[in-house]
Amino acid sequence: MWNSPAEFFEMGGYALYVWCSFGLCALILILEPLAINNRRKAIVNRLKREIRAEKFDKEGMK
C-alpha cells in the first residue's frame, strides 16, 4: 500500500524499471497497429500493380 502519490510513483525504489516498462509497452501498443496498417497498404498497392501489369501483358499480346 502507498501512503502518498510520491510513494506510488517511486514504486518501492523500482520506479525507473516499472515506468520504463509501462512506457515501452504503451509505445509498442501504439506503434503495432500503425505498422500493420502500413504493411497492409504496401501489400494492397503491390497487388494492384501486379494486376495492372497482368492486364497490360494480356492486352499487349492481342
Question: Can you give a write-up of this model?
Answer:
By secondary structure, the protein is mainly alpha-helical. The chain has a domain of 34 residues. Helices cover 85% and strands 0% of the residues. The protein contains two helices and no strands. The chain is rod-shaped and about 80 Å long. The chain starts with a helix and ends with a helix. The model has no long low-confidence stretch (mean pLDDT 91).
Question: What Rg is obtained from the alpha carbons, in whole angstroms?
Answer: 25 Å
Order of helices and strands: HH
Helical segment count: 2
* Strand count: 0
| CA(first)-CA(last) distance | 79 Å
Mean pLDDT across all amino acids: 91
Pairing-aware structural class of the strands and helices?
mainly alpha
How much of the residues is beta strand, in percent? under 5%
Show the helix and strand layout:
Layout: H1 5-10, H2 15-61
What is this entry, summarized?
It is built from 2 helices and no strands. It has helices at residues 5-10, 15-61.
Descriptive tags:
62 residues; mainly alpha; rod-shaped; single chain
